Amino acid sequence: MRVSDILKVKGNTLFTVTPDTTLHDAVNTMAEHDIGSLVVMEYGDLVGMLTFREVILTLSKHHGSLGTATIRKLMDDHPLTCTPETDVNEVRRMMLEHHVRYLPVLESRTLMGVISFYDVAKAVVEEQGFENRMLKAYIRDWPEEPQDQQPAPR
């Protein structure tokens, strides 16, 4: 399974902000759409990611206040990315190794979507469920051997 398979199921709705968006506005967008990350775009290019991790760190640092900071000061300005052709097992390894929950998907320099750890886990579980159903159907339809070819009892 590849990242493109996840994007087909997930859809292509993206929420983006600019680096000059205030953290307050970004948090409102995240809350309104029940999302854990925002892609930061500038002049048509991916320049960063804002996730709930950066929001929580800011809240902790400022004693519960979001302050007036813009995303530019808080975003991850070198986010890990993948392509639509990246294998899901490679994505799982990348996410675990780099401790990231959201990966922008780029084809050349074009943003194709964002996949989350949840999206990957859901896809893997669904794929395993499909394989289990196929195996069970195969076993259920297993042809019986003719009587004369069955092994002799011991």
Helix content: 40-55%
CATH architecture: Roll
Q: What is the first-to-last residue Cα distance?
A: 45 Å
CATH class: Alpha Beta
Please, could you describe this protein's structure?
- A hairpin with a 2-residue loop joins strand 2 and strand 3.
- This protein has a 3-stranded mixed sheet. Strands 4-5 form a two-stranded antiparallel sheet.
- The chain is of the alpha+beta class and 154 residues long.
- It has one domain: Roll (CBS-domain).
- The chain starts with a helix and ends in a 14-residue tail after the last helix.
- It has 5 helices and 5 strands.
Helix and strand topology:
Layout: H1 3-10, E1 16-17, H2 23-33, E2 37-42, E3 45-51, H3 52-61, H4 88-98, E4 102-107, E5 110-116, H5 117-140
Parallel strand pairs: 1-2
Antiparallel strand pairs: 2-3, 4-5
